[in-house]
Fold:
Amino acid sequence: MKPVVCSAPLASSSQVVTTRERHITLRFSTRKAVVLPAGISAETIRSRMNAFFANKPKVGGSHPYVKETRLRSDVGCIYATLSTHSYGQVEDMLAGCHAVVMRDLGLPDFSFVRDTAKVKVLVIGVPLADTGRGSVWRVEDWTNDKVYDGLRLDVERSNPGVFTAGRPNILGSIHAMKENKATSCQIRLVLERTREVEDALRAGRLCLRGANRGIWVWTDHRPAQVCHNCLQLGHISTMCAAPPRCRLCRGNHKTAQHLCPALNCPGQQGESCEHTVRICLLCNSSWHFTGFDRCPAVRMTPDASPPCGPRLPDRR
Structure:
């Protein structure tokens, strides 16, 4: 009787590596505009990483391979994407890869880090003046990249474990704030969702410009979806099984099939003409057609809610 040899089980569909798991972030310690050595590009770094992986043992039957790299000098990072492997599968190799890349390419100091989910945060009460108080400040101070680089570095240095993933954005008009003698503003940040960021969100504060500032989870304003087939809210036409409605005449046909019933009307099929009466089926207004993005029925929906309070959104 021959012995039974048990082979390793094949990976199931539930073990498929997600896109985020295939990301590797090269985070430079300067965290400002990255200046690579002469003749070195993100593609050069990709090629050297692949040469390193090719000389290492295979993982899961193949060598890890970086299929693309993207330089984000504004946030001091290079984003690399593995073809099939995950960050966890190559994590033990990254220390050696770091040493080889630094030796051969002479890059500024950096570290390999795992990609994380991002969260948008609204910081309120940020002083407009460098001194931290008062209305003595210049418009020029907020219309150049230097101030935003400074804000980003301030956030990371004042809050250990917090890392920005985009350029800070000030909300509102700088010129209007100056005319109104404003002393503070609101700034939207995109942060890597680390444990420290979650702690800050629970506490509802983040240190910026020398003091703790109130923070809120930011929710983007998005108009509600209007179905182009039935002209109702909440879904798109490809998912609609309802009878069609015409946005031009409210008839039981698709808008593209609309024809003006007036005799000898020069209007084209599917288009409005001089005989068309503007009526919205959602708000009953007579100044726009159904689906207009400034329609009150479209704008005043849960999908277009304002930024919410200090709570954590569901992970995606």
Summary: Residues 118-217 form a domain with the Alpha-Beta Plaits fold (CATH 3.30.70). Residues 145-158 form the longest helix (14 residues). The mean pLDDT is 83.
